């Protein structure tokens, strides 16, 4: 089973590059596409993962700061979230429906 994620896209690109390199004339020195090594694939994937983690952490930290320094806005957000969850309670069935949709999409 293949998923539609960053790692699979990188692996697919490496395989396509490898196939293109083997199908071209081997006498052309260095002019064809180059294949990423396994270590390079791991490094690219880790860079993307850490970049996403750092961005999310910085954003959440800044939001927390803004909410802590603006109690009126913090109370408005708390009330809005409470109102939403009163009319849209979380249930096991709801979580299962979301999970099954994600599986149907091969996430």
Topology order in helix (H) and strand (E) letters: HHHH
Strand fraction band? under 5%
Taking pLDDT < 50 over at least 5 consecutive residues as the criterion, the unreliable ranges are none
- Multimeric status of the protein: single chain
Shape: elongated
Through-space gap between termini: 11 Å
Can you give the mean pLDDT? 81
Helix content: over 70%
Structural class of the helix and strand makeup? Answer: mainly alpha
Count helical runs: 4
Instruction: Calculate Rg over CA atoms.
Output: 23 Å
The number of distinct β-strands equals 0
- Main sheet summary: none
Q: How would you characterize the overall build of this protein?
A:
- This protein is mostly helical.
- The chain has a domain at 1-21 and 34-86.
- It has four helices and no strands.
- The protein has helices at 6-23, 38-69, 71-87, 92-104.
Summarize the structure.
This protein is an all-alpha fold and 107 residues long.
How would you describe this structure in keywords?
107 residues, mainly alpha, 0% strand
Task: Summarize the topology.
Elements (H helix, E strand, L loop, with lengths): L5 H18 L14 H32 L1 H17 L4 H13 L3
């Amino acid at each position: 089973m293949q998923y539609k994620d960053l790692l699979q896209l990188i692996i697919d690109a490496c395989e396509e590059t490898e196939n293109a390199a083997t199908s071209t004339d081997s006498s052309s020195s260095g002019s064809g596409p180059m294949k990423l090594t396994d270590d390079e694939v791991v490094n690219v994937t880790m860079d993307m993962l850490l970049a996403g983690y750092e961005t999310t952490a910085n954003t959440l930290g800044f939001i927390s700061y803004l909410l802590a320094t603006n109690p009126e806005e913090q109370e408005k957000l708390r009330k809005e979230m409470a109102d939403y969850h009163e009319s849209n309670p979380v249930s096991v069935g709801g979580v299962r429906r979301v999970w099954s949709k994600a599986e149907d999409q091969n996430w």
